[in-house]
Amino acid sequence: AQNGSVRKRGPNILVTGTPGTGKTTTSSALAEATQLRHIIIGDLVKEKNLHDGWDDKLDCYVINEDLVCDELEDLMEEGGNIVDYHGCDFFPERWFDRVVVLQTDNTVLYDRLSRRGYTGSKLSNNIECEIFQVLFQEAKESYPEDIVVALKSDTIEDISRNVASLTDWVGSWHPAS
Ligand code: ADP
Ligand code: MN
Prior knowledge:
By secondary structure, this protein is of the alpha/beta class. It has one domain: P-loop containing nucleotide triphosphate hydrolases (Rossmann fold). Helix content is about 45%, strand content about 20%. It is built from seven helices and seven strands, in the order E-H-E-H-E-E-H-E-E-H-H-H-E-H. Strands 2-5-1-6-7 form a five-stranded parallel sheet, sandwiched between helices. The radius of gyration is 16 Å and the shape is globular. The structure holds adenosine-5'-diphosphate and manganese (II) ion.
């Protein structure tokens, strides 16, 4: 690298999508195949208290986006991370080399989220989020078009194919010089 900048140890990939689309399953398999570091933002927020309390209405922690970004800055600069979160508009654009948006058929997603115990507005809000492609729109508005990719995640075969193609992409990735 020139001008004293440090070459990244690998690409940074954001895996996003509506809850239940398979982010954690896909990211875990990809981390295993590539030796990239899997960062589950929801777990990090809980472990390090990077939140402003519990939202009773939404039934989740109120994530503190500034604290999360501060916590991750050094790791992201180092490179080689898979970031797993159902949101993408508050991370610095420069962090990511690839943004993967997982997408699932509504009826398939409905069953997955019901099985996870989601009911009522928590269930319907997430189904609506998927129908209106909220995360795909958010990704396209937040990152350069050519690094955003939407991948279908309906079946186990989809996961295998997505992990294989992303593993290939990681293998051919070169740091910008
Ligand atoms: P997310 O992290 O996006 O909330 P998970 O990876 O936790 O989603 O997956 C939610 C549930 O759906 C899990 O039980 C997982 O096994 C299942 N699942 C996720 N993606 C798929 C898929 N493409 N095909 C079949 N089952 C899937
Ligand atoms: Mn998850």
